[in-house]
Amino acid sequence: MNQPLRTRRRHITQVLAWLLTVLLVSMGVRAEEFRPDFVDPGVLPGPSQRAAKITVPAASRSLLGQDQQAWMRQGFDDRAEVELIAIYQLVAQGRLREALHRSGLLAERYPNFALAHLLRGDLLQAEAGRLRHFADAPSAPGSAAQQAESARLAALVNEARQRLRAFAQAPGAGLVPSNFVALAPGVKHAILVDTSRSRLYLFRRTAQGSLQLEANDYITQGKLGTDKQRAGDMKTPLGIYFITREVGRRWLNATYGAGAMPLNYPNAWDRRLGRTGGGIWLHGVPPSSYARPPLDSDGCVVLSNPDITALMTRIEPGATPVVITSHVQWLTPAQLAAQRATVRKLLARAPARQGGPVATPPLELAAATVLYYQGEHELLVVQYGSQHGPKPITYRDYWAKQGGQWRLFHAGVLS
Predict the structure, then answer these.
(1) Inter-residue contact 400 to 407 (CB < 8 Å)
(2) What pLDDT digit, counting tens, does each position of 95-104 carry?
(3) Angle at Cα 177 formed by Cα 195 and Cα 80, nearest 5°?
(4) Which of 124, 202, 373, 407 is a Cys-bridge partner for 379, taking CB atoms 3.0 to 4.6 Å apart?
C-alpha cells in the first residue's frame, strides 16, 4: 500500500472514531470512557465545535467497554444488536480491519438489518480512504430521490444513536422503575416502554416478590412521537395499559411480523380526557426488515421479530401491565418498598369520588397489582381479585391525583 493512502486511511479512521466519540459524549458518556488513545488531537475540531457534555443520570452506568456477557446480563438479549455495538466499539478502538470483518459477518447473518449494512458501507469507505461522515452517500442536491435517501439515512443514524445510548446509559444493576409499585402474586411479568430511549424493558416477578430485568429491547414508536390524543395522529399513547390478547403470525398481515399483542387503549382515563383511536399493539416487523427506525409506526410499539416472539412466550393477557412513559424514575428495591407502603396507605384512606365507586377494600389491596404513572397527570391503576360469590371477580380501579388528593374516578369489573 502506498504511503499517502495509508496515511489517509489512518486519518479517516481517527475521524470516524472521533465522530463516534462525539456521538457518545452528546449522550452523556464521558469522553475518557470511550475515546481511543490513538486519536490525534490534530484531527479534532476546536472547543467551540465540540458537543456539549450532558450529565449521565445517577441511575445509569455505561456498559460500553465491557464484554458481551456483561451486556447479556443486563437484558440485552438481541444478538444482532449486541454484535452491532461490539463493532462500534472496535471502530472507537481503531481496530478497523477487525470491525470490517465482523460487519461483513453481521450483514451476512442478518441480511435484512439495514443498520448493519449502513455500518459496513461506512467501514468499506473508510478502508478505501473515502469516508467523509457517518451514513456517507453520493449527493444529488434537490432531487426527490436524494431527499428520500437522506431521510432514510437520517432515520438509520437516529437508530444507531438510540441503540448506542441504551448501552451507554443502561440502568444500574438491581434498579427497578417506580411505575411498578406492586405486582399481584399471580402476575409474572411487567413491561415498561421508555419512549425517550426507544427501549422496552421486561421485568419478571421472582418467587420472593422482587423484580428482575429479563429483556432490554429496542423499539419503534409513532412517526410523530408520543401522547396520542386522537385517531390517526401517528402518536404512541402514554399511560398505563394491559395486554388484552395474543395474535399469532398466521392471523396477521405481514406488516405486523411474527406476532402482535393489542393494548387496551383507550382505557378509562383516556376516555375521560376524550382521547380517541384504537388498534395500539405491540407487534413485529415485515420479513424484509430486521427493525424499523425509532419514529416509524402509526402509533404502535414495534419490536424485531425475535424480540416479539420471545416476549409473547412470557406475557399473560389481561394480567401483564404495559406502562408507556417518556421519563423513567429508577429506584433501588428498598426505595420501591418504601413507595409501595406509602401508596397503599394513601389508597386505603383516599376519599372516593362523590357519587362514584367505593375505594378498593384494604384486604384486596394487599394482594393487588398497583401501577403508577406521572406525566401531565399522576395516575394509579389498581387491579385485584375478589371471591365474593361462586367464581372469582377481577377488578380494575383508576385513581387520579386532584387538588393534592388521590381520588377514585373509575372502578371496572373485568370478569
Answers:
(1) yes
(2) 888 999 999 9
(3) 55
(4) 373
The strand pairing partners of 379, in sequence order, are: 373, 400
Give exposure, 305-334, as e/b (b: 16+ Cβ within 10 Å).
bbbbebbbeebeeebbbbbbbbebebbeee
Please give the Cα distance from 282 to 300 (Å, whole number): 6
Q: Are residues 134 and 275 in the same domain?
A: no
Residues 70 and 127 reside in one and the same domain: yes
pTM, 2 dp: 0.86
Radius of gyration of the CA atoms of the chain, in A: 24
Place of cell 395522529: 233
Find the angle CA(90)-CA(96)-CA(102) to the nearest 5 degrees.
65
Cα–Cα dist 35/25, whole Å: 10
Helix (H, G, I), strand (E, B) or coil at 248: strand
Which of the listed residues 270, 299, 330 is the one where a domain comes to its end? 330
Q: Which of 46, 40, 41 is nearest to 10 (CA)?
A: 40
pLDDT per residue as tens digits for the range 2-31: 555 555 555 555 555 555 655 554 555 444
